[in-house]
């Protein structure tokens, strides 16, 4: 394993929670200072969401918690920001959002038809973005390493394919699952409490799917009753939630 070539740049934390987040912070500061945040919220509320991919544009939430947004918010904002702030921010910031929109479209590709043409467009877009960033805040290129990581993206895409294939965005959604498993915890040992919750759920899954366990009193292997074992057959939605595949019985003969 080559640690430099086999650990690709991750687009969730490098782009959405990196470059886009920094530009959003600067834009929000400009709007707040100029008392234009209400105007921005009104435009964000009125923008059409029909053409967006999984839109997350709750205007009131985004403006109220502007410093605590997550990746899905930045992905949606990057697609519409130039249409919302065209006359509210300096031209350099507007140019930055325009290039960000192009960068997002290029990186969230699931299929690349011509690798050389695609990588040439991506490299040019990254260079344009870094140039605009230098005009907006030159020091950020030195203080934030994520801007430099963008330069390595074309090499990793050439090696591994589209950047969404090595994105951790889908796994970040499981943070919500872990938090739900720790609701009744005093937060003194959250990892232990979460594992205890998952273990209890696994026990239930084992019982209702017909699994056996050793009875400590009779010292015999026992299983649940017939009604419990047939519960999954009569409730396909519960079977689906537990990830149990449908088993079609073959006809004899």
TrEMBL record:
Top-rank taxon, per record: Eukaryota
Protein's recorded name: Uncharacterized protein
Organism expressing this protein natively: Hygrophoropsis aurantiaca
């Amino acid at each position: 394993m080559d640690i430099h070539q086999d650990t690709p740049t991750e687009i969730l934390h490098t782009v959405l929670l990196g470059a886009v987040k920094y530009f959003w912070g600067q834009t929000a500061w400009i709007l707040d200072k100029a008392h234009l945040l209400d105007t921005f919220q009104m435009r964000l509320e009125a923008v059409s969401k029909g053409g967006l991919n999984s839109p997350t544009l709750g205007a009131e939430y985004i403006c109220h918690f502007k410093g605590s947004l997550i990746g899905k918010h930045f992905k949606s904002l990057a697609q519409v920001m130039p249409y919302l702030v065209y006359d509210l921010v300096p031209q350099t910031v507007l140019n930055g959002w325009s290039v960000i929109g192009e960068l997002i479209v290029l990186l969230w590709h699931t299929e690349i038809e011509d690798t050389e043409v695609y990588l040439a467009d991506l490299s040019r877009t990254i260079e344009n973005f870094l140039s605009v960033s230098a005009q907006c805040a030159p020091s950020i290129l030195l203080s934030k390493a994520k801007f430099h990581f963008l330069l390595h993206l074309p090499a990793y895409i050439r090696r591994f394919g589209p950047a969404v294939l090595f994105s951790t965005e889908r796994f970040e959604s499981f943070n919500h699952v872990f938090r739900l498993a720790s609701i009744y915890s005093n937060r003194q040992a959250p990892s232990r409490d979460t594992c205890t919750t998952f273990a209890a759920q696994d026990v239930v899954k084992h019982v209702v799917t017909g699994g056996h366990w050793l009875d400590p009193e009779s010292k015999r292997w026992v299983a649940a009753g017939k009604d419990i074992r047939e519960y999954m057959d009569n409730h396909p939605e519960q079977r689906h939630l537990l990830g149990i595949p449908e088993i079609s019985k073959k006809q004899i003969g």
